[in-house]
Amino acid sequence: MALNQLTAHEIVSLIKKKKVTAYEVMQDIFSQIDKVDNLTKAFLFVNREEALRQAKEIDTKVKNGEELPALAGVAVAIKDIIATKGIETTCGSKILKGFIPPYNATVINRLKESGAIIIGKTNMDEFAMGSSTENSAFGPTHNPWDLERVPGGSSGGSTAAVAADEAFIALGTDTGGSIRQPASLCGMVGLKPTYGRVSRYGLVAYASSLDQIGPITKNVTDCALVMKVISGHDNMDSTSVNLEVPDYLKSCQKGIGDLKIGVPKEYFIKGIDSEVKSALDRALKIFAKLGASIEEVSLPHTEYSLPAYYLIATAEASSNLARYDGVQYGYRTEEYEDLASMYQKTRSEGFGSEVKRRIMLGTYALSSGYYDAYYLKAQKVRTLIKEDFDKAFSKYDILITPTSPTPAFKLNEKVSDPLTMYLSDIYTIPINLAGIPAISLNCGYSANNLPIGLQIIGKHFSEETILRAAFNFEENNDLEKKRPSIKPAKHMEAAK
Amino acid sequence: MTEKIITKKEVEYVAKLAKLEFNEEEKEEFTSQLNSILDYFKKLNELDTEKVEPTAYVISMPTLLNNDEVKPSLLQKEVLHNSKYIKKDYFKVPKIM
Q1: Chain segment A232-246, per-residue pLDDT in tens
Q2: What pTM, to 2 d.p., does this model score?
Q3: For a designed S-S bond to A431, which of A375, A438, B85, B97 qualifies (C-beta 3.0 to 4.6 A apart)?
Q4: Is A394 a catalytic residue?
Q5: CA separation for the pair A268, A149 (Å, rounded)
Q6: Which residues of B fall within a CB distance of 8 Å from A356?
Q7: Torsion sign (Cα): A244, A200, A161, A472
C-alpha cells in the first residue's frame, strides 16, 4: 500500500518511529495528485515546493530527536474559502481571482503549529453556495467513486481530495451541510462543530450565524485528532466560545452502552432513497447491538427548516457579499462610467449565477416592506426548530439520521432547478439553524457502489459524545470498507 | 403556480439595491426562479409565530470583549497589495462628484 493511502494517525506514528520520512510521505501524496487530480479536479492550487520543504524540516526534527507535534508531516488540503497567507484564496469565484490574503486564518495557524503541512487549496461551490461543487467558477470537481457524479458540496474539492488519497485530511466549512453532505457522498468522515467551537477568523463569510469550519477525514480517529487541534477560543473571533477543549481521542475509547439514541421520524418520510433507508436500518441494529437504546422521536418543525434556512442564509449573504465592489481587492471590471456603474459591472461580471440568485433573494427578504414577512418570520421559525432539538435532547443523548436523502447524483442533473438542488441538504440544514454539532460517516454502499452516510447529531458542545458514537460504530461495522476506483467511465476514456 | 409573488419590475428594483445588473433574459429567468422559491417559502405561513421570539444567534454566551489596547496591525503595503488600482498610498476609484 502506498503511503498516501494510510490515515493521518498512522502516518504520524510511522514518522515518529522513523519507519518513513515525512519527505517520502509527501512524495507519495504529490505523485497521487499528479496521477488522479486531472480526473477528480479536487485542487485549485497545489503548494508543492513549500510542502516538500516543510516535510524536510520535520525530518530534521526527527533526526535531532525533537518531540513531534500531533499532526507532524500530515498533508492537509484546505477549502479555498479559508485565508492562507501568501497563497491565493478565491472562494471558487472569479471576483476573488488573484486575491492573496495578508494573514492566516486561526485554523491555519493551529494546523501549522501542530506540524500539519498545507499541500493546496481545494475547489468549492462559489462562496460555499451549493451542494455539488458545480457552482465553482473554475469548473466542477468529480466524485472519485464515479467520475460522472458530483462529490457533493460545497466542500466537494476537500472531500474528493481525501477520498482519492490526494490528502490525509482536509478542512471544509459547513453552513447548511457543506461538510457532511460531501462526506456522505464520498464515503468520508465529516464533522460540523457546535457554532462557536472553532474560530471563524480568516474564514470568508457566507452566513455568519451558521458558518463553521470542520475536518474531513478518512476515519473517526483522524477526525478526533484534527478537532483537538482546531477547536478552542480565539481572541480574533468574538463568537468563539471560551470552553476547555477535551481530549476527543480519549473520549472515543469508551463504549456506548449508556447512550440513549433518538431517531427522528420526520427524516424517514417521502423522498428518501430505499437504499439509504435500508443502510440506516442496518446501522441502527449495530448501535443496538452495542448496547445503546433506540427510540423514535419527533422533530415536528423539520419541514420548515429549508425555507427558514434559505431566508436567513441568503439575507446574511447579501450583506456579507456587499464588500465585493472591486475597490480594495479582487476583480474590477474594465469599462465603467462612474462609481455606481463600476460596482454594478464588477459584481455582475464577477459573481456566478447561484451567488447572484442568493444575493437577490436575501436583498429582497431584507428590503423595506418584506423584512417582517420573510426575515423575521424565518428567525422565529428558527427558534421553533431549535426548541424541537432542545426537547429531544432532554430525553436523548444523540440523534441518528441519514446525512443525504440520496447517494451521489450525476453532474448537471440538478443545476437547472435550484429548488431541487436545495432539497439535497434537507437533513443537514436543521443542525446549522440550531447551532449543534453533527458528524457524518459511511454506513454502507448502494447497489451501484456509491457510499451512503449516516449523521449523528448531539447537543451543544457534545462533540465528545458524537465522536464516541461514531468511533464505536466504525469499529463494529461489519461491512467491508471499500475504496473508490477513480476510473474514468468507458465513454469518457474514448473521448480522450 | 398561479399568482406572481415577485414581478419583473421588483426584480429590477432589488437588483439595483444589490448593485447587480441583468440582461432581459436573465431578468425573466430570475423572476421565474425567485417566484418558485418564494412560493415554496410560503410554507412558513402555516406556522403561528406571533408569540415566538426570533433567534439571531444560537449560543447564549456572554459577548467576549478584548481590552482596548493598541496592537500591531497589517502594514499599509500589505493592505494595498491586492489592488491593481493604487495611486500613491490610496485606492483609486472613479470620480464620485
Answers
A1: 999 999 999 999 999
A2: 0.97
A3: A438
A4: no
A5: 24
A6: 20, 22, 30
A7: positive
* Amino acid identity for residue A487 in this structure: K
Fold of the CATH domain B8-46: Histone, subunit A (1.10.20)
Cell of A310: 434559505
Q: Which residues contact A144 (CB under 8 A, 6 or more apart)?
A: A36, A39, A40, A151, A160, A163, A164, A186, A484, A485, A486
Handedness of CA A453, A456, A461, A463 (dihedral sign): negative
Cell of residue A415, nine digits = 443545476
Closest CA relative to residue A432, chosen from A377, A394, A372, A385 = A385
- What ipTM does the predicted assembly reach? 0.95
Look up residue A283 and give its DSSP letter. Answer: H
Where does chain A hold its CATH 3.90.1300.10 domain(s)?
3-301+383-495
Torsion of CA A234, A240, A241, A242, to 10 degrees: 10
Q: Which is catalytic among the residues A178, A199, A305, A462?
A: A178
Continuous H helices in A179-331: 180-186, 220-230, 248-252, 274-289, 305-320
C-alpha cell of residue A50: 513549500
Question: d(Cα B85, Cα A210) in Å, to the nearest integer?
Answer: 34
- Choosing among 3.90.1150.30, 3.90.1300.10, 3.40.50.970, 3.30.420.40, the CATH entry for A3-301+383-495 is 3.90.1300.10
Reported as a pLDDT band with limits 50, 70 and 90, residue A496 is: very low
Residue B93 to residue A376, Cβ atoms within 8 A: no
Alpha-carbon separation of residue A167 from A11, A379, A456, B40, B76 (angstroms): 12, 39, 25, 40, 36
